[in-house]
Amino acid sequence: MERPFFGYKIITQTHNFIGPNAKDESKKFAGNKLACASCHANAGVKSYSSGFIGITARFPQFNARGNKVISLEDRINGCMERSMNGKVMPLNAPEMRAMVTYMHWLSQNTPVGAKTKGQGLAKVELLDRKADPIKGKVVFENHCASCHGENGEGMVNPDNETSAYYIYPPLWGEDSL
Fold first, then answer.
1. pLDDT tens, residue order, the chain (177 aa)
2. Residue 104 neighbours by CB under 8 Å, 6+ apart
3. What CATH number should be reported for the domain holding residue 19?
4. d(C-alpha 26, C-alpha 177), whole Å
5. Among 2, 13, 38, 95, which lies 20 to 30 A Cα-Cα from 80?
């Protein structure tokens, strides 16, 4: 089966298809220039990076935040409203159908309710002490600033008309989570 290209393009170039750079005003659902792939690395195929492989077999599911059972489309719209600082996309919008089709394509042969290797996020060990902003600044300068910028502004992709807007997304500001 061939990759559902339109869904893939929306995931990787969200800003161009359903974001601020969309040519059609009625298609501007994402309110910032992040891509879905800013969180779902490699268009949702990287392990432990909120991947999409097997995701369609895990919906509908209970959502604790809303205290209700939600569909995959509801989850996508949750991202549109919160992470993307945008608005709800109609369930029958061609863009919504394309995104879900792409996720179905990635989820082929995954049994309903199955756990897939690498689903979710990698576990992070929490500190057992109070955070130290001075040490944190050193860590940021040594490990984060080279990609995310000295001020956390992110690194804009010079090829953002045919790819993601950011190579490395901003850590704060309008285009951050």
1. 556 799 999 999 999 999 999 999 999 999 999 999 999 999 999 999 999 999 999 999 999 999 999 999 999 999 999 999 999 999 999 999 999 999 999 999 888 878 888 899 999 899 899 999 999 999 999 999 999 999 999 999 999 998 999 999 999 888 988
2. 4, 56
3. 1.10.760.10
4. 23
5. 2
